[in-house]
């Protein structure tokens, strides 16, 4: 079930002065070194993402990570860039438009925690325009302090607005059914893979040790989707991708799991990434391109199942969550 943390509950205004905002991570404005450096710098200065002492982190970030990483990552973005922009930006924008169609009674907007359109600036604009109530729906099905709580930090600083945050929807039955259905349709078109891999974005193990519920919620999501597909336990695996830095991240890794599946002689693997609401660099470049190439070198075929993106089912389920939250607010 989606969970809500009510940050400020004031008097209950009508839906006419209410905005629902889909908030995603953010992405560079262009697939070049300058834009990627600007984006990474904002992202990696967030203490929710990297909690090291600034005395240690800032020199490392400014003199090593940003100069060394930005150009390489810009080339990766260039390999998946769409005519209208970064995939994450394009799909998020289209998804917000699709949710607006489902929810004509309120304004539906989208924002990015890092980069444009800025979440912080959007809240200021809404307040200036006379909006009184904002429901934030972060596009992260599973809660993590590094993502959801960071969206909540900005929301919590908004002045003059009544605000509410959807903390997660990792076990929402409509979300589980929509992801399961997308896998079912992919398999109906392409033929069943021999194994289904649920690949979630990773997180430092330390975050989980400190109480972040993310890994537990990923496990619950994967189990629920597998159950909806009637898959026996041996037909699926959960793994974590997109490792960053040197410390220990959640295991098993997606790359290592694919190697292990290849070693077991499994040739056709379906990979789905249910932690990502929309396709982005991490799904398209890392999984559908690079990991698929590595798996092909083992003689296997990795078949990537796209994210829900702006599909009607996705728009309808998010609109359903928003409508429920707005209803609860009014009571
Ligand atoms: C310490 C670093 C990082 C943590 C913690 C982290 C958590 C985290 N991230 C997502 C979702 C996405 N991350 C994306 C890109 C991305 N992530 C990190 C680092 C951490 N993420 C970096 C440095 C990058 C940028 C690319 C790179 O340099 O490798 C994206 C895609 C953005 C895009 O433009 O397409 C998403 C989405 C989650 C869900 C999460 C915690 C659970
Ligand atoms: Fe800095
Ligand atoms: Fe990330």
Description:
Belongs to the ferrochelatase family. InterPro entries: Ferrochelatase (IPR001015), Ferrochelatase_AS (IPR019772), Ferrochelatase_C (IPR033644), Ferrochelatase_N (IPR033659). With 331 residues, the chain is α/β, with parallel strands linked by helices. Among the domains are: 48 residues; 133 residues, Rossmann fold, CATH 3.40.50.1400. The strands form two sheets. The chain has a five-stranded mixed β-sheet with strand order 1-5-4-2-3, sandwiched between helices. A four-stranded parallel β-sheet has the order 7-6-8-9, sandwiched between helices. α3 crosses α11 and α6 crosses α8. The longest helix is centred in the N-terminal third of the chain and has 27 residues. About 3% of the residues have low confidence. Bound molecules: ligand L6N33NVT and fe (ii) ion (FE2) (2 copies).
